[in-house]
Amino acid sequence: MVAPTESDLIMKNALDILSEQYVGLFEDYLNNLPEDETPPRLREAVMYSLLAGGKRLRPVLCLAAAERCGLNPEKKAVQEKAEQSAEDMKLFAEQALLNRINQRAMMSELR
């Protein structure tokens, strides 16, 4: 195993700090999404996927970028837009993963 470089340690520390700052905001947003007309079983599956553990790198980077661009995360409207973008990024990544899984399953069935 290769020992981490100083640059690796700096990056990990920066990501840890960002995660502490933004993960709670994103998870609160997901937990407080309004009910809609999505079938309950589908909603349950989507929420399970979104609320599953993990580092949540994409949402954290999205929220950090919004703040870095001068948006005040204390303002409710700004926070909602950044959180919506973060959720969209997470959903996109989840969908891409599901598509890859489906493609592999279809390819194995054709063999």
The succession of helices and strands, N to C, reads HHHH
Strand content: under 5%
Q: Tell me the number of strands.
A: 0
Low-confidence stretches: none
Alpha plus pi helix count: 4
Helix content: over 70%
- Class by alpha and beta content: mainly alpha
Distance between the termini: 37 Å
Rg from Cα: 17 Å
**Which descriptor suits the 3D outline?**
flat
Largest sheet: none
Mean pLDDT: 75
Describe this structure in a few short sentences:
With 111 residues, this protein is an all-alpha fold. It has 4 helices and no strands.
Protein model, in words:
With 111 residues, this protein is mainly α. It is 77% helix and 0% strand. The chain contains 4 helices and no strands. The chain has helices spanning 6-31, 40-51, 57-68, 76-110. Helix 1 (6-31) packs across helix 4 and helix 3 packs antiparallel against helix 4. 12% of the residues are buried.
Task: Summarize this structure as a short list of keywords or feature phrases.
flat; 4 helices; 77% helix; mainly alpha; 111 residues; 0% strand
What is the topological layout?
Elements: H1 6-31, H2 40-51, H3 57-68, H4 76-110
Helix pairs in contact: 1-3, 1-4, 3-4
